[in-house]
Design brief:
Elements lengths: L1 E4 L2 H4 L7 H4 L3 E4 L7 H8 L4 E4 L6 H6 L5 E4 L9 H6 L4 E2 L6 H17 L3
Parallel strand pairs: 1-2, 1-3, 3-4, 4-5
Length: about 120
Amino acid sequence: MKIVVLDGYCENPGDLSWDPVAQYGEITVYDRTPDEPAEVIRRIGDADILVANKNTISAEVMDACKNLKYIAVQATGYNVVDVAAAKERGIPVSNVPTYGTAAVGQFAIALLLEICHHVA
C-alpha cells in the first residue's frame, strides 16, 4: 500500500517520526506541496492513501489518481476536499474533528486571567 503525505511540515516540522504510519505501507512525505493541480497529481501518483492539509483535492485530482482509496485531512475541517466527488468515487474522507480542543480552551482561560490579573 502506498501512502503520500502532501503537507508533512504542518503536523511534523521535524520533531516526530513518520515510522508509526510507515508500518501500514510505503510512505512518501513531502514537507510542502504547491497547491497546483498538476503538481498535486504528480506527487499523489498511484498512492492508495493520501494525507493532506493545505492542498485542494478536487474531482480532477481524484480522476487522475485512480488508485486513491482514502483521504485523511490533517485538520479540523475538510473544505480542501471535494467531498461530493469523493463520495461518488467511493473514497472515504476523514479529518481530525477535535484537534487542539483542550489546548484552545486552556489558552483562552489563560488569556482571560492575564487580562484580569496581569500575571505576565
